[in-house]
Amino acid sequence: MPRLPGSDTVQHSKLGARFGIYVLSTSLLCIPVAGRTATSRCRNRAGVIVAGHLSHEIQLDAVHPAKEWAKATPMTFCSDWQGRNADPQRQTTVRVLWSAQNLYLRFECRYRELYVFDDGDPNGRRDHLWERDVAEAFVQSDPLQPHYYKEFEVAPNGFWIDLDISPAPSRDLKSGLEHSTFLDKRQNRWFAELAIPLKSLTSDFNPGAVWRANFYRVEGREEPRFYSAWRPTHTPQPNFHVPRAFGELRFAPAR
Predict the structure, then answer these.
(1) In angstroms, how far is CA 167 from the centroid of its own chain?
(2) Contacts 24+ apart (CB under 8 A), 234-240
(3) Given this model, what pLDDT does residue 42 score?
(4) What is the mean pLDDT of the chain?
(5) How far apart (Å, rounded) are the C-alpha atoms in residues 148 and 146?
(6) Which residue ranges make up each domain of the chain?
(7) The domain made up of 9-20+41-251 is a member of CATH 2.170.16.10
């Protein structure tokens, strides 16, 4: 397992820019979520996630999230890819926002252990990122083409990858995404925010359309690793590439 810094770290990056790493002396204040027991909160059964609307773009900051994230209804999960073995200590909370330019994602991840790559491209891209700890989003703008969708992954230390998935071999999406990550080792949590240009997801965005999506986490050094999913895929072995299991992604009306 690559050694991580002993103190908390935050990383902000824009595709094509080098990472900056800063030591923090304060811990993250999380966006509050309505109180329920940890286990019941992460046993998510909802099949729809709604992206809150933004009238303007926001600055990504995993440490101090923009107040606009309160417009997004949190969706939480901690069960494995079969909908079993709920583990609140590996809970994931996802929030989604949309603007005229971007789809925004925020992940809040509890963890038991960390296992990450210590090398990547200068801009932070890392191939085969799923072989280490990651949070993932699969986004499908056209449900009539179930085998075509986009895959986004981000690691606790800020590495990322974006892929264009189709029946042909997957290829780099080159979406132009921006992101910010924060690792809070004292609280065993890590956080990531992504801004994904809508033009990389669809050529004709219609906020009245219903998209499909799923969200996942992978954690662990060796098998059996913990593969968790918002919408369980129910495959015999861990497999996230099951479009029929995707939930609905809807867009709140512009106001």
Answers:
(1) 23
(2) 234/81, 234/82, 234/83, 235/81, 235/82, 238/80, 238/81, 239/81, 240/81, 240/136, 240/138, 240/214, 240/216
(3) 74
(4) 88
(5) 6
(6) 9-20+41-251
(7) no
Q: How many Å apart are CA 243 and CA 240, to the nearest integer?
A: 8
Torsion of CA 48, 53, 54, 58, to 10 degrees: 0
Beta carbons within 8 Å of 40's beta carbon, 6+ residues apart: none
What single letter denotes the amino acid at residue 83?
G
CA dist 186 and 147 (Å) reads 41
**What is residue 207's three-state secondary structure?**
coil
Q: In 94-117, which positions are buried (b, 16+ CB within 10 angstroms) versus exposed (e)? A: bbbbbbeebbbbbbbbbbeebbbb
Any idea which residue has 């790493």 for tokens? Answer: 21
pTM > 0.85: yes or no: yes
From residue 96, alpha-carbon distances to 37, 70, 92, 104, 230 in Å are: 23, 10, 13, 6, 14
How many helices (H) and strands (E) are present in the chain, helices listed first? 1, 15
DSSP secondary structure of 108-143: EEE-S-----S---TTSB-TTGGGSSEEEEEEES-T
- Kindly report, residue by residue over 149-193, the tens digit of the pLDDT: 999 999 999 999 999 999 999 999 999 999 999 999 999 999 999
Closest by CA to 215, choosing from 122, 108, 123, 63, is 108
3-state secondary structure of 82: coil
CB–CB of 109/92 below 8 Å? yes
Measure the N-to-C terminal CA separation of the chain; round to a whole number of Å. Answer: 47
* Residue range 118-152, pLDDT digits in tens: 999 999 999 999 999 999 999 999 999 999 999 99
- Give 207: exposed, middle or buried? Use CB within 10 Å, 0-12, 13-18, 19+: middle
